[in-house]
Fold this protein.
Amino acid sequence: MCCTGFLKVMMFIFNGAIFLAGAAILGVGIWVTVDSDSLLGLVDKVVELPEDVFQLNYVGYVLIGVGAVLLIIGFLGCCGAIKESKCMLLTFFSLVLIIFIIEVAGGVVLFVFNDEVDQIFDSIENEVRTDIQKNYGNENDMTQVWNTTMEQFQCCGYKNYTDFEGSPFNNAGDRYPSPCCDGTGPCTSNAARTANIKGCFVKLLELLEENSAIIAGVALGIAALEIAAMVVSMVLYCNAGKKGK
């Protein structure tokens, strides 16, 4: 009985964490979906890109779905442990197992097709630069998204300042966006060349690389939490069955 009580507490803690994580992911998904000035909004403003690229626009909806599923799992786990419901515990175990398998499969796919993913991003560079040179300074929404992105990430263009050469903004006065220069004066071609601010895509990759250990640690932590939750739920499931006898 003491062991069962301890497992119930552990189950409640595990699923409380899952429930809170689901709420956080759901909130981020809603924010990404609603906030048109976020980095993902940039993709929606860029035209003439490969169709695969526009799948990035659905990241917000995916996060909302994942968050909602985690909320349900957390609820099932907590209620199943408290009420010792075999149905809830088995449903919880099955859902967590399915998610765990999907996560493992997704990790394997990303590892195996890493080069293909890099090629997809490399292939869109010309299309993005073409759109910048055509619309930056002319289309307000697109210009605002780029400005917000460059200010937040302290980057310049997709690759560098040359992305803006020939754009309406550049043609209007031989100027470049202020984030492309270090100084407070006019951002001329010489100033932008001297500053040599990195492109936003490079900045994004560097950000991911710098935090790769944290990302890996979080992923391993989530996997360990899921495994522990499955083990505890199955033990409670078996004990509930014995208790019923």
About this structure: The two ends are 15 Å apart (CA to CA). The chain has two domains: 2-113+227-244, 121-202.
